Amino acid sequence: MSEQRDALLARVVDYYAEHGVRDTSLRTLAAGIGTSQRMLHHHFGNRADVLTAVIDAIAGSQAEQIRDLFAREQDPFEAGRRNWVDTLAGAEKFGALWFELATHAMRGEPYAADLGRVMVETQLREFTRVYATRTEATTAAHLARLTLAVGQGLVFDYLIDRDRDAADAAVLHFTEMVRRELAAPGNP
After folding, report:
1. pLDDT (tens digit per residue) in 29-38
2. Helices 137-161 and 76-106 sit at what angle, rounded to 10 degrees?
3. pTM as predicted
4. 109-135 per-position pLDDT tens digit
5. Cα atoms in the Cβ-side hemisphere of radius 13 Å centred on 48
6. Which residues contact 115 (CB under 8 A, 6 or more apart)?
7. Distance CA 53, CA 67 (A)
8. Cα separations (Å) of 155 from 15, 90, 102?
9. How far is CA 187 from each of CA 20, 47, 77, 81, 166, rounded to the nearest angstrom?
10. Is pLDDT above 90 for 68?
11. Burial level of 3, CB count in 10 A (0-12/13-18/19+)?
């Protein structure tokens, strides 16, 4: 049953990534992905439960990906560059859906309540952990929040204007700012 649910969820995520969530009913969603409303109910429950599963699917592994990338790559700045490339690749398909669901969280939709933890807290924790190996805890936490905000902001801008060169240049500039901050006197 888990494999069936996972396959169905992948189709749901693809559908929402292409069409957006909007006010899509389960009936419309089922027709769009070639299944029945009953199957959606069976595997997920109601529409809110489907959207909760979508949030978990597209956001749940982000912190794990960051942790794994920074663990594999010795140079944290190279890991950061690769994270940017991977993030933009994912944003090509899921970015609009990600930001649409973020607005649902901002509006207090119950099914999106966990998005703050997934979208912000877990990523902040991973970035803070990486920075804490090179600076004291308060600076690490500030740099982590700044890194997340700059990254999300640049992804948002890129999805609107599609100016990859400008987004990449801004990331490089930000990276150099962080590099200087970490090289400042008082940092290990």
Report:
1. 999 999 999 9
2. 70
3. 0.86
4. 998 888 877 778 888 988 999 999 999
5. 9
6. 55, 59, 101, 102, 104, 105
7. 22
8. 21, 10, 13
9. 45, 49, 16, 22, 30
10. no
11. exposed
Total residues found in the chain within this entry: 188
Tokens in use for 168?
A: 């990449």
Which amino acid is it at 89?
A
- Tokens standing for 162? 């599609």
Q: Is residue 50 exposed (0-12), middle (13-18) or buried (19+ Cβ within 10 Å)?
A: buried
| Number of helical (H) and strand (E) elements in the chain, helices listed first | 10, 0
Instruction: Give the count of beta carbons closer than 10 Å to the beta carbon of residue 28.
Output: 14
Quote the CA–CA distance of 82 and 177 in Å, as a whole number. 18
Which of 31 and 75 is assigned the larger pLDDT?
31
Q: What's at 181, amino acid-wise?
A: E
DSSP 112: G
Burial of 1 (0-12, 13-18, 19+ CB in 10 A): exposed
> In Å, how far from its chain's centre is CA 92?
12
**Tokens 């990254």 sit on residue:** 151
Here the tokens at position 124 are 């902040």
For the record, the structure tokens of 118 come out as 């997934």
Top mean-pLDDT range of 55-69, 76-90, 120-134, 160-174? 160-174
